[in-house]
Design goal:
Layout (H helix, E strand, L loop, with lengths): L5 E10 L2 E12 L4 E5 L12 E6 L2 E8 L6 E7 L2
Antiparallel strand pairs: 1-2, 2-3, 3-4, 4-5, 5-6
Length: 81
């Protein structure tokens, strides 16, 4: 989508915590040369702050802050082949 500056896909999985239906939305910002990755699920129905990062030499590094159960953490998503 948008000449490669946007991507979207869906996923569905069953695990120990139950059934999950989700959506991945990836948006490229040409000014910052970074991607923003959004991971909403059907159970929440909202866009949380995105993971932000970039690809270099086939490797992606993306970061965001989250606060599960009120505790602030730094989240890193490491995209490799």
């Amino acid at each position: 989508m948008w000449d490669g500056r946007a991507q979207m896909d869906t996923f569905e999985a069953d695990g120990s915590t139950g059934h999950i239906e989700g959506l991945t939305l990836r948006l490229y910002d040409p000014q910052s040369r970074q991607w923003r990755l959004y991971w909403p699920t059907a159970g929440f129905g909202r866009l949380d702050p995105p993971q932000i990062g970039e690809f270099k030499d086939g490797h992606g590094d993306f970061y965001t802050q989250d606060a599960p159960e009120g505790k602030s953490i730094l989240v890193r998503f490491d995209w490799t082949r």
